[in-house]
Amino acid sequence: MKYCSNCGEKVIFEVPEQDNRPRYVCSACGTVHYQNPRVVVGTVPIWKDQVLLCRRNIEPRKGFWTLPAGFLENGETVYDGAFRETVEETGTSVSDLVPYLMIDILHVHQIYLMFRARLTTMDFHPTDESSEILLFREEDIPWGKIAFKVIEKTLHSYFNDHATGCFDFRIDKIDKMNKFR
What we know:
The protein has 2 helices and 11 strands. By secondary structure, the chain is α+β, with helices and mostly antiparallel strands.
């Protein structure tokens, strides 16, 4: 950040009075520009013993596989955002969304909130965001072609829980590139 969105003057990076960390502060009007993590919401769409994955048709990681997920919009609930992202990326809808996994990704300032969800129809298809949509059993997942570590971690958690039948809500973190807690 170089300029204040309030008045257009230059900002400086300093610890504001009565704060405990550096922030961008306008040198003219004094506005403190807080920057907070971005929330990503998505689903683990399930059909029997299979999970629906999308091959990304957009950067980053175009051509790699992911679960349907994306940034939460202002004025949107996390539930509505996860449902919307699933429709946008797979062309199909889900039901019975249950909060499943929250992962803090510290190095990119993101919080992922993933829901388990039931596919309501087999009518899924490529979209602008996804070039291919397929159902996978655990043994068929292209593990070497998963787009993001957070998706890999979510899938491993889901299949481990599927084996036991216990799907407790989890909170986890990825604190460095390619490192799980």
